[in-house]
Amino acid sequence: MNYAHVEDIITTLRGELPPEVTLVAVSKFHPIEAIEAAVRGGQEVFGESRAQELAQKHAALPHLKWHFIGHLQSNKVRAVVPCVSLIHSVDSVALLHTIDKEAAKIGRVVDVLLQLHVAQETTKFGLTCDECVALADSGVLATLGNVKVRGVMGMATNTDDSAEIAAEFKKIRSVFDTLKSSFYPSDDSFSVVSMGMSHDYRIAIDCGSNMVRIGTTIFGEREY
């Protein structure tokens, strides 16, 4: 298949996004050839949601920045930790401890985002807003020498109601602002608000996102 259109889409999209917004090209279920076309368009950051697929693609293209964006099970952490520059989906204290332990084994510090659950769907994962603030207040994060919390991630409800989407994104941004002012006021690395996908990234940016995860718009429908 010819993926020349992917290069063009990436170029257009990167030109459209504000300079402070990082584009994560969600490449899950898409082949190496599609990723290479995106790289030709200037893209360096890619998102995967399955540990095995991430490991395979990282092995093929180790010079790229790989983000893990899917729900991460504890038994998959060992496979993910050597490959990632950022894990978006940390949704429990237990997962934080597992990442910390596996990162220590290979002598690296892994950047992570705390995942918030603000959507109406119960199938989505994440901490509630109160749980997230309580975690930061507990002092647990300071004990993890091989994990670095860089910010927050969240998803809005899958709906056509743009007002509902905006309200949920504003909740995520509000939690980030609370964490920043209360716990990370002088930490410049605590700076990431990851929210917004193909169908709602423009709303997310308007609500304070500085990292968007876009797949379908770039690569088309997934190839299972």
Structure description:
The protein has helices at 4-16, 32-40, 51-60, 77-80, 93-105, 129-138, 162-183, 201-206, 216-219; strands spanning 22-26, 45-48, 65-68, 86-90, 110-117, 147-155, 192-194, 211-214. Helix 1 crosses helix 2 (32-40). The protein is globular, with a radius of gyration of 17 Å. The protein contains nine helices and eight strands. The chain is α/β, with parallel strands linked by helices and 224 residues long. An eight-stranded parallel beta sheet has the order 7-6-5-4-3-2-1-8. The longest helix has 22 residues, at 162-183.
Furnish the topology, listing elements before pairings.
Layout: H1 4-16, E1 22-26, H2 32-40, E2 45-48, H3 51-60, E3 65-68, H4 77-80, E4 86-90, H5 93-105, E5 110-117, H6 129-138, E6 147-155, H7 162-183, E7 192-194, H8 201-206, E8 211-214, H9 216-219
